[in-house]
Amino acid sequence: MRSDGEVFTPFHRGGSGSPLVLIHGFTDTWRSWELVLPTLERSHDVLAPTLPGHAGGPPLPDPIDESVMADAVERAMDEAGFETAAIAGNSLGGYVALQLAARGRASSAVVLAPAGGWAENDGSYSQMLDLQSGLLELTKAAAPHADALLSTMDGRRRATELIATNFEHIPVELLAHQLLGVASCHDGQRMIDYGRTQAWSLDADAITCPVRIIWGTDDRLLPWPSAAERYRSTLPQADWVELEGIGHCPQLDVPVETAQLILGFPS
Hints:
Elements: E1 2-3, E2 6-7, E3 11-14, E4 18-23, H1 37-40, E5 44-49, H2 68-80, E6 85-90, H3 92-102, E7 106-112, H4 124-142, H5 146-149, H6 153-160, H7 172-183, H8 188-195, E8 211-216, H9 229-234, E9 239-243, H10 250-253, H11 255-263
Helix pairs in contact: 2-3, 4-7, 4-8
């Protein structure tokens, strides 16, 4: 799939060793893991799929339900020959990773700012979806001007301010891919509309594998600690890691530390 010359692919697979699945967040692609891949692939056979409805991913079915994303990743795991795998996910991908853990497909789960952790009646959830809806429209308008926008430090700061506090090390080409990926997420609004009624249900009692939950204290999309409230009560056995001053996507923000947090769990 192409948008303004950009190529979007359905998955990445590389490395050797025990299976590891990486699941990206809303409007992202598998390339959100690109900065940690070289380290992870030294000891893992890594599968990083692009989720349905996202740029390069399979079509989003109609109607949407809570199982759509996890079902797609399960199919990708089956095709890769992974009965179980260590699974890491960010944001929406973190929620999907926990769903897969509840299905028994994860040998361990490392989730970075997983979606679905809001407390009941937390109004910030609706505000976040409003923000995402606005970002979709802004990004579509900005996409034809991506090169100019990202040619300056100020432009790169604006492009990353909601996902990372440290951005100078992120390659411009990757930032352009991300921007165009958001603009090419044509089912984004459908997913947002569904998200407004989604229960974000999770059979936490069915999760028997080790779980590590990582959250940046400067997360501007899913603020710590309020956006983690539900998981703090339903996953009391989890290993919690707070990343001081880090944003929503630690794999982009602090890739070296994030790779080690994935590789080092369980110890």
